[in-house]
Amino acid sequence: MLPNDPESAGRARETTRLALRAAGLPDDHVERAALLVSELVTNAVVHAASDVRIRVSARPVTRVEVEDDNPRLPDPQPPLSPSTAMDALEPGGLGLTIVEGLASRWGADRRSQGKVVWFELDHERA
After folding, report:
1. Does the predicted model carry a pTM greater than 0.85?
2. What class, spelled out in words, does domain 8-121 have in CATH?
3. Measured between alpha carbons, how far is 118 from 41 in angstroms, rounded to an integer?
4. Mind listing the pLDDT tens digit for each residue in 62-100?
């Protein structure tokens, strides 16, 4: 379990890296998963205001789940146009856009208490 703290995103990245490196996955795959878990944990900390739990599995695809206690499902925002992005004063708001663009699949499921937001990355075939 990770606390409702901005530093939890870094801890989730490291946990994900360790698990996927131990599974023998290539560095670019590991780093993509680390970036995506960071986005999901940051969203949970900012929007769910609860502790988070992560699960990482490597086979048959990489699947990472981020669970929190808030039942509200994520609401992806449309990508910003270049002019809107230049005018934006607040950072953020693109986490799910990044997940959507880099993950093979992603989604969110309600649980009895809270929700799980997950992504999958297909493994490269040699």
Report:
1. yes
2. alpha beta
3. 11
4. 999 999 999 999 887 666 555 544 444 445 567 898 999
